[in-house]
Specification:
single chain, 2 helices, alpha+beta, 19% strand, 4 strands
Length: 102
């Protein structure tokens, strides 16, 4: 039986790592897996394990604008992300974590 419950995380970061293997543009073309790894490392260094989850996402439908990163449940969406943007993403996450009561 399905179990309905609230998320245990303050924020859940989804990084599109869709790879179309060169058939069409995809988020993986710009090292989205490396971007995900960088965000995850920063989250762990901040001590947010259990508060912020970083996950791989399949295609989010806008690879032409990618790599794409989404933060839920806040509904914050970033496009054209590269490694230089990780600090900005972490700063946004920091504001979310600080504003929560968890």
């Amino acid at each position: 039986m399905i179990k309905h419950q609230q998320t245990p995380f303050i924020a859940h970061v989804f990084v599109c790592t869709n790879d179309r293997k060169g058939a069409r543009k995809s988020c993986a073309d710009a090292d989205s897996q490396g971007i995900k790894d960088g965000i995850k490392e920063a989250v762990n260094n901040k001590g947010w394990k259990g508060k912020v989850r970083v996950s791989t996402a399949g295609c989010l439908g806008v690879c032409d604008d990618g790599p794409n990163v989404i933060i839920y449940p806040q509904g914050v969406w970033f496009s054209a992300v590269d490694h230089a943007d990780i600090d900005e993403l972490v700063s946004v996450l920091e504001g979310i974590v600080k504003s929560s009561n968890k």
